[in-house]
Specification:
With about 120 residues, this protein is α/β, with parallel strands linked by helices. It has four helices and five strands.
């Protein structure tokens, strides 16, 4: 997948995991406005991966033919909180089910987390 990872999620570990899995991954500089991030993602055909649902969901509603939005929702329960490995695994699960292109899709990655190994 072609991903633009929002600055708040762009840890070195997550970026490395996504790249190792074969994804094209970019991020933004700190402080770039969400509207500018969204515009860049659309111009360059990147799916946005963010932990900031509010602003990006509004942008996605205004641009129904967008290149995809993957949202990681914060969890109060530390056990449910998604870490870099969880996020990378959920992105891979999305790719397995939906393919590389997520045109118009808005997905909560929390729902795509692979269950823990039994």
């Amino acid at each position: 997948m072609r991903l633009l990872v929002d600055e708040a999620l762009a840890s070195d570990e997550l970026m490395a995991r996504l790249r190792t899995a074969g994804h094209h991954v970019e991020t933004t500089e700190k402080g770039v406005l969400d509207a500018a991030v969204w515009r860049y993602a659309q111009e360059t055909e990147l799916t946005v991966l963010t932990g900031n649902a509010g602003d990006f969901m509004a942008e996605a509603q205004r641009t129904p033919d967008h290149h995809g939005l993957l949202v990681v929702y914060g969890e109060r329960d530390p056990v449910k909180r998604m870490r870099a490995a969880d996020i990378a695994g959920a992105v891979e699960h999305v790719r397995e089910v939906c393919g590389e292109v997520l045109r118009g899709a808005r997905l909560a990655l929390n729902e795509w987390r692979h269950p823990p190994d039994a």
